[in-house]
């Protein structure tokens, strides 16, 4: 088969997937499956080979990520139900003060709070952000809006247990522990540097409170909106925050399906959960992440300690986190609330499972074609070119589709064969894909509209804090990945 035909088949299939999602509003799971089948048939795998390769890719990906997604969703659902996030933000404000709290929030939201869905984080923490903003000066709303956007989007794409990072790791066969370790190395400097840059830019006149801010939504309105949305979700209706006029077909499904019960914001229940120290609420999750990190470090050092290797396995470590958090919920919440929370969490994981598996099927089909050999010949032995290319592909896909997870997974799958054949650590390809998928978050993203409304920004203001801010983090993350490539 001529070289150009392989590029044409893959290119047309990817463009077709984008058009199906954007123009014809086809569910991403179905669109990805159609794209995988088209590449297999057009790439010479044949009918039987295409089906077998898709099934293998789906199964291998789910074997890698299925339990991790389930445990992460359950932990996030329970922490959300405990009201732990709002308490954390209040604590950070007391400890770090107004000037330091943006950096503390950025690092927290981008790392160990990635089990919490993005829209839930915004709804819970937005009232606290609005109270913090005036203490940061006239541009406080711009700074806090940027912090929220950068930390939440960067974390979900690059930091385990963020859904995007887990899906990328599964698609490329990256050990979860290594993805978490190196993701942490990239994410923390990325969010801190971006927060520093955007704070300077905002104070230099980039943010205009008169044009970039709207009247703040009061907390009672927030509660009413959340309660209304939960009622619609229980009735089987499609969830969409009334002011969220944008659409992120994948991140919306992954990040906005966690319902919030009306009584979740009941002061009486909140008081009950507050009787437990905040560290105790987050303790099981932190312990799980430390076990995973320890296991990854021992693996890199090639040190064998059977007990740590067992407990540090991500599936076991996060299971311990689920059990620990469930015990806390059993003590802090009414008797039936734990079961309701777990059932809701399992329901939320359904589309994430399907999307992850079909994304793995697409990556498997692409890897089975000669595309990897051809790209290897074009890029030579340099690690920089594939890293830059996967960033560009992910950025283009994100601009078109508006989905961080879908664009990152697709770009990583296309370049995965190059990483293997050139001897490049797949972690670099995965991190570059996640970084590129952050570029130009705009009106097709539901997160854009959530941040615009709940943090009191005009559309013009959201374009500055969300679109520009997250794009800056995308470039900073790429630079961090390129630096990391020198050592990996």
From TrEMBL:
Membrane-crossing residue ranges in chain numbering: 7-24, 30-51, 103-129, 141-174, 180-201, 282-301, 307-331, 352-371, 377-397, 428-451, 463-487
- InterPro entries to which the protein is assigned, alphabetical: Glcn_transporter (IPR003474)
Q: Name the keywords, alphabetized.
A: Membrane, Transmembrane, Transmembrane helix
Q: Which residues form the signal peptide?
A: none
Family annotation (Pfam families): GntP_permease
Question: What protein am I looking at?
Answer: GntP family permease
Per the UniProt record, the source organism is: Gulosibacter sediminis
């Amino acid at each position: 088969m001529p070289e150009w035909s392989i590029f044409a088949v893959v290119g047309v299939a990817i463009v077709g997937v984008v058009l199906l999602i954007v123009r014809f509003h086809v569910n991403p799971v179905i669109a990805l499956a159609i794209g995988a089948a088209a590449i297999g048939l057009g790439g010479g795998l044949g009918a039987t080979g295409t089906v077998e390769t898709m099934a293998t890719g789906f199964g291998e990906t789910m074997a890698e990520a299925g339990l991790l997604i389930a445990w992460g969703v359950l932990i996030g659902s329970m922490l959300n139900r405990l009201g732990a996030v709002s308490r954390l933000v209040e604590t950070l404000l007391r400890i770090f003060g107004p000037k330091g709290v943006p950096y503390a929030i950025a690092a927290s939201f981008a790392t160990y709070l990635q089990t919490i869905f993005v829209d839930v984080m915004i709804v819970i923490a937005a009232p606290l952000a609005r109270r913090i903003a005036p203490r940061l000066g006239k541009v406080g709303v711009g700074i806090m809006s940027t912090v929220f956007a950068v930390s939440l989007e960067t974390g979900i794409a690059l930091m385990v247990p963020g859904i995007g990072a887990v899906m990328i790791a599964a698609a490329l066969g990256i050990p979860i522990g290594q993805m978490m370790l190196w993701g942490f190395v990239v994410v923390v400097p990325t969010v801190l540097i971006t927060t520093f840059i955007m704070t300077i830019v905002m104070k230099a006149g980039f943010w205009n409170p008169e044009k970039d801010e709207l009247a703040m939504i009061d907390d009672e309105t927030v509660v009413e909106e959340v309660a209304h949305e939960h009622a619609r979700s229980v009735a089987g209706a499609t969830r969409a925050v009334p002011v969220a006029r944008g659409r992120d077909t994948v991140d919306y499904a992954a990040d906005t399906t966690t319902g919030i019960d009306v009584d979740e914001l009941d002061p009486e229940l909140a008081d009950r959960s507050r009787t437990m120290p905040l560290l105790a609420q987050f303790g099981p999750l932190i312990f799980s992440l430390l076990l995973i990190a320890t296991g990854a470090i021992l693996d890199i050092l090639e040190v064998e300690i059977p007990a740590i290797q067992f407990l540090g396995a991500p599936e076991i470590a996060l299971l311990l986190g689920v059990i620990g958090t469930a015990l806390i919920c059993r003590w802090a919440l009414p008797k039936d609330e734990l079961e309701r929370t777990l059932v809701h969490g399992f329901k939320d994981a359904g589309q994430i499972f399907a999307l992850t598996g079909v994304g793995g099927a697409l990556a498997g089909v692409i890897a089975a074609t000669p595309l990897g050999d051809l790209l290897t010949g074009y890029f030579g032995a340099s690690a920089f070119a594939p890293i830059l290319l996967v960033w560009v592909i992910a950025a283009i896909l994100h601009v078109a589709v508006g989905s961080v997870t879908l664009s990152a997974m697709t770009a990583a799958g296309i370049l995965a064969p190059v990483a293997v054949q050139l001897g490049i650590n797949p972690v670099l390809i995965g991190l570059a894909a996640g970084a590129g998928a952050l570029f130009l978050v705009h009106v097709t993203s539901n997160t854009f509209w959530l941040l615009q409304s709940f943090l009191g920004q005009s559309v013009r203001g959201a374009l500055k804090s969300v679109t520009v801010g997250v794009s800056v983090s995308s470039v900073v993350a790429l630079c961090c990945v390129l630096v990391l490539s020198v050592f990996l």
